[in-house]
Amino acid sequence: MCGIVGYIGKRKDIYPVLIKGLKRLEYRGYDSAGVAIIKDGEIISEKKIGKIKELEKKVGKGIIGGEVGIAHTRWATHGGVTDENAHPHFDCNNKIAIVHNGIIENWQTLKKLLEEEGHKFKTNTDSEILAHLIEKYYKEVKDLAKATRLALKKVIGAYGLLVISLDEPDKLVVARKGSPVAIGIGKAEYIVASDATPILEYTKKVIYLDDEEVAVINHEGYKVVDLENSDKEKKVNNLDWDITMAEKMGYDTFMLKEIFEQPDSITNTFRGRIIPEEGKIKFGGLNISDEELKGVKRIIISACGTAYYACLIGEYIIENLTEIPTEVEYASEFRYKKPVINGDCLFIAVTQSGETTDTLFALREAKNLGAKTLGICNVVGSSIAREVDGGIYLHSGPEIGVASTKAFTSMIVAQYLFGIYLAELIGKVDTKQTKELIYELQQLPDSVRRILTLSDEIREIAAKYQDNRNFLYLGRGNNFPIALEGALKLKEISYIHAEGYPAAEMKHGPIALIDENMPVVFIATKDKVYEKIMSNMQEVKARKGKIIAVANEGDKEIAKIADDVIYIPKTIDLLNPILTVIPLQLLAYHIAQRKCCDVDKPRNLAKSVTVE
Ligand code: F6R
């Protein structure tokens, strides 16, 4: 969703820093972009709908020089996609410029009050309110930071906010509530952004603002206060990502790069956490004592989208290993359903970005009701990572492609590690078993590597089916969530309608859809339901459906029924989804590529969903 970038520091030209920063945030999804720079007593600003290169065209040769600047990519919520509605927004006199992520819920009330006081609005966005409110208070207090704090006290809603003003041209004011802001601390320069990717190439040192905090940055340094102006001590974090991780490195798209990174990202999730010779798992940051874990009687795992499907696999793994009742909840449903929770309950929030609003609010609800909370999260220092009692970082590196791939497989690995840890702690598995489970995990990266060599073959299969308008994905057991994930990947990046079902459910309805125009993707690896899946395949074949099967190497039977087979190595049941999902990621990718879709930035989608 929206991205913000701000710069204040020693550089002579800050426009390229802002534009580059916006480009690094492109992956979040946006529909327009804008920039404002204070230069020689003037605010120079341009905004434009469309891609950042449209903005660059409008700016022409660029903006040379400047003292401080802010920039924005907008993902429209209030007000249509127009140049006017793009950020930055200004006060009545064009002296104050703001960029804003989030939603101001009481904007209509505030707008009415401000209009009564004579403020003239140029757009129909909620964000413009902020510029006028700050203007109002600036007239009274003649201090940009104080005026911002006073304005924010009137606001209901969420904000990641940057403010600059001609009256205080050597200052950048930054504020946050509910919408993330990171401040990169460089050598005599500060780069502010909605996440760390624009900051990485300048510095590894960042501070993250917490809700209702305001930072005032000038050339001498920075100070963070709360809305009441009390000083806040901020921890300086060291980013462990480097800039090459946020670049394409020769791949056509970030998504393909991220699919191919999975042997490494999977390894990075378990690296340092397994002791194979002892059959032990160790975690650094669980922050829940073994005694407390032993008292857990129920586990709730919650997330959205692809992360939710990873939780369904986690449920299977954790329940299987620990025998503790485990449930999975859509975060968006959990928070409104009056959940029954008590102190015996462990709540696990699973999220790549750590910023998904529904997951964050579900976590807060669980915490309020007394659950212990864990986060399984990729982005270090993100809101969810900071609010949970303890957690497991994925360490998969930045995921830039909007469609999640490598974070998904790492989420399964993290839950697998946690399942083994807990099962061992409560005596449900012995050392011989944990050694075996760890051994199987260690084999995964090589198996994934082997599957990735099938990419060209899968591209050929994609060519045969790219013009179909509907797909069905069927799987059973812990491959049912993979059917859901395979269908989601296809629909989000190729805009083809696809549905995932438990294979046995087909005959209770979806079978009516089967004809020669319906490709059905079966996940049919050799597990305890293999024979049943084969029967489902016969049912599809009898109705002239086309079958694409993901099967285990050496399975000759399946080739007699399926039109196309993708053969993958075998692993244990619990880990099988990590291998079965890779061909489905590649199938969706190649179909979308052949249809010339923008796979990294699919239409209407945002990487980090920070609205309800
Ligand atoms: C789909 C996808 C989304 C996310 C969902 C949750 O490919 O990426 O469905 O999984 O928006 O995002 P996180 O994991 O950041 O909480």
Write the layout of secondary structure elements.
Layout lengths: L2 E7 L5 H11 L6 E8 L2 E8 L2 H8 L8 E7 L14 E2 L5 E6 L5 H10 L11 H14 L2 H10 L5 E7 L2 E10 L4 E4 L3 E5 L11 E4 L4 E6 L2 E6 L10 E2 L15 H7 L1 H9 L3 E2 L4 E2 L8 H5 L3 E6 L1 H18 L3 E5 H4 L10 E7 L5 H12 L3 E6 L5 H5 L2 E4 L12 H20 L5 H22 L2 H11 L4 E6 L4 H15 L2 E6 L16 E5 L6 H13 L3 E7 L4 H5 L2 E5 L7 H19 L18
Helix pairs in contact: 3-4, 4-5, 7-13, 7-14, 9-13, 9-16, 14-19, 15-19, 16-19
Bound molecules: fructose -6-phosphate.
Fructose -6-phosphate binds next to helix 9.
Describe the 3D structure.
There is one protein chain. The protein is of the alpha/beta class and 612 residues long. It is built from 19 helices and 26 strands. The chain has an eight-stranded antiparallel beta sheet with strand order 3-2-4-1-10-9-11-14, with helices on one face. The longest helix is centred in the C-terminal third of the chain and has 22 residues, at 431-452. The N and C termini lie close together (12 Å). Fructose -6-phosphate binds next to helix 9.
